[in-house]
Amino acid sequence: MNRITRRGALLSGLAVGASSCASTPKMTPYVAVNEAATGVFAHGVASGDPAATSVVIWTRISPPVGARLVLPAKVVWETAGDEAFATVLSKGETETGPSRDWTVKTLLTDLEPGKTLFYRFRFLDAYSTVGRTRTLPQGAVDAARFAVMSCTNYPFGYFNVYDLVAREDDLDAVIHLGDYIYEYSREGYGGEVGAALGRNHEPAHEIVSLADYRMRHAQYKADPSSRAMHARHPIIPTWDDHETSNNSWKDGAENHQPDTEGEWNARRRAALQAYYEWMPVREPDMGPEAFFRSFSYGDLLTVAAIETRLMARARQFEYSEIIPTLETPEDVERFKSDILWDETREMLGAAQIDYLDRTLRNSIASGQPWRLIANQIIMAKVTAPDLTPHVTEEDIAALEQQWNQARAFVKSSALGLPTNLDAWDGYPAARERFYDLTRNAGEDGMIVVTGDTHTWWANDLVDRNGTQMGVELGTHSVTSPSPYRKEFLGGKGAEYALLTNRDNDDVRYLSGESHGFIHLTVTKESARAEFRAVDTIESGDYNAFTQAAFDIEKKKGAARFTDADGLGFKEGFLF
Q: pTM of the entire structure?
């Protein structure tokens, strides 16, 4: 029985019941660390952007009140081969002060490849907690393991997903795909939940200035689960939009009003300055927006972290602007074929395309079987199912309270338009240019990991001619809510997920339930993605379980899904 026929037989509308979660038993309860963020090193330690012989380590000092300081302040760092620091391997000092918000960032060099290293900081008589990091391996590598995550909105709940990742012992790195912070005020997105949980944003207003962004980063870094995760593993982060402002693009953002919030370029500069101060990353030579780089894991794979927001992205289409222009079927077809496919609409830009071309070619030439693309926004083609017969006026009105595009989106769903015009679907010509460069380099072995949507995805990546280019794994959020969760659309969110799955052949699995991360293991022959979840973010006490799991192999010239575990009955048929 072919896949399309199974889908047609399985679902006929929103009357179907929601699918089940994974059958994997829950693990024993964990308790998130409740240690207060106090003292000289209140924001913990972190490491990131590892290379074979170097890695960035980071901390921030809070000088004791009344202390007489000589500026710039000197902070000592030390490394050791054991957590007890029985033998100090290296030692140095780094300067800091108010000009960089008292943050400390040091590039450790002349390290051994593929080694675990411990580090700590000292200021005056105070020592930081000990951090653990790891350099990239060289030569033969049997396996690499990553935790893939995104969308960490402080007021929406406890960072239990961070806590769970901190308890993992076998990770090579954490890949954070963006929305590491959120810019909203206490009255904005998540504010009501934050007030109920006692997790209000600081500062109270929407962040716009350098001081605002610094304070918001400080709040997120002070969270105990964040400190635990960062101290345990090196991080490879990308940014998405909320590190600056919602739905950002090269020359602006949906959530930026120049009349009241000033010039966009000034806000962007402030956001990126705070980002580079507070994150354990290397700063790009081409300018702050050019935040793309790669990481090579011996003879196994290359991780290419791309930038899709600030350097080259054209302004995204808004449903509320498009729908009034689509008065006839001819208007709709013209939009789909001409306007949406405008070749000048850019996502990556020429400089990044050139870098990725060289990176992927080098990976293939070196004999690595896999390329892992750290990507912010959904790359697969996803057309919205027609919602107009299934949602009421009350459903739309309620959704409009959360999203001002809701009414226009429901109308657009009847026209066969993409579900998300802020994703790669809003830039299909740019997506084809990316596929072209991967094809020219050698398309087999591409796995794309994606954040942004607060939803679990397992997608086939197929070009406009129907050629399989690879697979996509979408991670749920650390805390932000999914539009495919049961409560969405007046309680129809899970059915909306099933309809989206049914109507899109490229979508193999889709679920908005639970929060979590992808535990991704890559070996020479295959890859396995386990969608690891927590049962609550409303309390620091939680259970952990596996939502679903997927096996990936290279077949017929491309990465393909070969098996899945933990799917519900309907999800299994749709897969």
A: 0.94
> Which residues in the chain are classed under CATH 3.60.21.70?
3-31+139-180+291-574
Written out in words, the top-level CATH class of the domain with range 3-31+139-180+291-574 is alpha beta
Q: Phi/psi at 455 (nearest 5 deg)? A: -150, 145
**Could you tell me where the beta strands, DSSP code E, fall in 248-387?**
248-249, 252-253, 293-297, 301-305, 370-375
**Distance separating alpha carbons of residues 262 and 248, to the nearest angstrom:** 15
Cα three-residue angle 438-439-443, rounded to 5 degrees: 75
Q: What is the CATH number of domain 37-137?
A: 2.60.40.380
Give CA–CA dist 456/530, Å, rounded: 11
Q: Is there a contact between 86 and 80 (Cβ–Cβ < 8 Å)?
A: yes
- Residue by residue, pLDDT tens for the chain (575 residues) are 333 233 333 333 333 333 334 434 444 333 444 455 679 999 999 999 999 999 999 999 998 888 888 899 999 999 999 999 999 999 999 999 999 999 999 999 999 999 999 999 999 999 999 999 999 999 999 999 999 999 999 999 999 999 999 999 999 999 999 999 999 999 999 999 999 999 999 999 999 999 999 999 999 999 999 999 999 999 999 999 999 999 999 999 999 999 999 999 999 999 999 999 999 999 999 999 999 999 999 999 999 999 999 999 999 999 889 999 999 999 999 999 999 999 999 999 999 999 999 999 999 999 999 999 999 999 999 999 998 888 888 888 888 887 778 888 888 889 999 999 999 999 999 999 999 999 999 868 999 999 999 999 999 999 999 999 999 999 999 999 999 999 888 788 899 999 999 999 999 999 999 999 999 999 999 999 999 999 999 999 999 999 999 999 999 889 999 999 999 888 999 99
Q: Which amino acid is at 385?
A: P
Q: Outline which parts of the chain fall under CATH 2.60.40.380.
A: 37-137
